[in-house]
Design brief:
Layout: E1 35-42, E2 48-59, E3 62-71, E4 76-86, E5 88-99, E6 107-112, E7 117-121, E8 127-131, H1 143-148, E9 157-163, E10 169-185, E11 188-200, H2 203-212, E12 219-224, E13 230-237, E14 244-249
Antiparallel strand pairs: 1-2, 1-14, 2-3, 3-4, 4-5, 5-6, 6-7, 7-8, 9-10, 10-11, 11-12, 12-13, 13-14
C-alpha cells in the first residue's frame, strides 16, 4: 500500500539552506505494484478525524499513486505522485493539495520534476510559476515508498525534498532506523522498525530554528521487516505547527 505523503508538505519558515552532504537515489529492491487500500487518520488518543483512500497503478516502469484524506470537518488532503522505478526511484511529478478548517494555511503545489517547473496556487486561485534545478533524487510524495526499499541495517539515508510555498525551498531529509516496537495481529507477534525522518535546516537557520521553535518535529514510520516490509503505523504533523496525527490501515466493514 502506498502511504501518505508526510508532514513535509508544510510551509516551513526557511530563509537560508546550506547543504553539507549529498542525498542519494534509492535502489529499487521491491518494485511497487497496483494496490487499492484504506487508511484512518487519528488523534493520538485514537479518535478518527479523517478517512483515506489509497490507489496505485503501474504502467511499465511508471507508477501513479494517489492518497486522499476526507476530514470530518470537510477538509481535504490530496496528493498524487507519479514516479518511475527503473533501477532507482525517480520522481516525475507530484501534486499536493490541502484545504479546509483543519489546515490554517492551504497548500496547492504542482512539481514537474523532469523540467524543474513548480506551480504554486494561493487561496485566491492565483498561480505563481517557478523554475528550480532539481536533483534526480528529489523525493516529494515518495518517502514511504522509499522506506520499503531501505534496509534497516543502513545507519542513515538522506534525500532531497521541496518544501511547499510561494517560494519553494529544497531541503534534506535524514532517514534513520532508531529502534523497534512490538506489535500483534491476532495471535501473531511481530516487531517493527521505527524509521525516524528528520528535517535538516542548514546554515544559520539550522542553528536558530530549534531555539525559536521553528524546527519541525521528527516524523516516524514503523515497518515490519520482511520481503517485502509491511506498513504498521505512521505518526507526524501534516502542517507547520500542527498536532501529531497517527495513520493506520483501515479495514472496510460490510453493511
Amino acid at each position: 500500500m502506498r502511504l501518505s505523503r508526510i508532514w513535509l508538505g508544510t510551509t516551513l519558515l526557511i530563509s537560508t539552506v546550506a547543504f553539507t552532504a549529498s542525498a542519494e537515489t534509492i535502489r529499487v529492491r521491491y518494485p511497487q505494484g497496483s494496490t487499492h487500500g484504506f487508511l484512518a487518520l487519528r488523534t493520538l488518543d485514537g479518535k478518527i478525524i479523517a478517512t483515506g483512500e489509497s490507489t496505485q497503478t503501474v504502467r511499465g516502469i511508471q507508477v501513479t499513486s494517489r492518497l486522499t484524506f476526507h476530514f470530518r470537518d470537510g477538509s481535504i488532503d490530496d496528493d498524487e505522485t507519479i514516479f518511475s522505478q527503473k533501477g532507482v526511484f525517480r520522481l516525475i511529478s507530484d501534486h499536493h493539495i490541502q484545504h479546509g478548517p483543519s489546515f490554517p494555511k492551504p497548500i496547492d503545489l504542482l512539481i514537474n520534476a523532469l523540467d524543474g517547473e513548480l506551480i504554486w496556487r494561493d487561496e485566491n486561485g492565483t498561480s505563481t510559476q517557478t523554475h528550480m534545478d532539481l536533483p534526480d533524487d528529489v523525493s516529494n510524495g515518495l518517502p514511504p515508498n522509499l522506506l520499503v526499499n531501505i534496509s534497516p541495517t543502513i545507519p542513515e539515508t538522506k534525500v532531497f525534498y521541496i518544501v511547499a510555498g510561494k517560494k519553494p525551498r529544497l531541503i534534506h531529509i535524514s532517514i534513520k532506523p532508531t529502534g523497534t516496537a512490538a506489535f500483534s495481529v491476532g495471535t501473531l507477534r511481530r516487531k517493527a522498525t521505527d524509521f525516524t525522518l528528520h528535517v535538516e535546516l542548514g546554515g544559520i537557520t539550522g542553528v536558530v530554528a530549534p531555539i525559536i521553535g521553528k524546527q519541525p518535529p521528527d516524523f516516524h514510520i514503523w515497518l515490519q521487516d520482511g520481503k517485502p516490509p509491511a506498513f504498521i503505523r505512521e505518526e507526524g504533523a501534516l502542517y507547520e505547527g500542527g498536532p501529531v496525527w497517527r495513520m493506520e490501515q483501515l479495514s472496510p466493514m460490510l453493511r
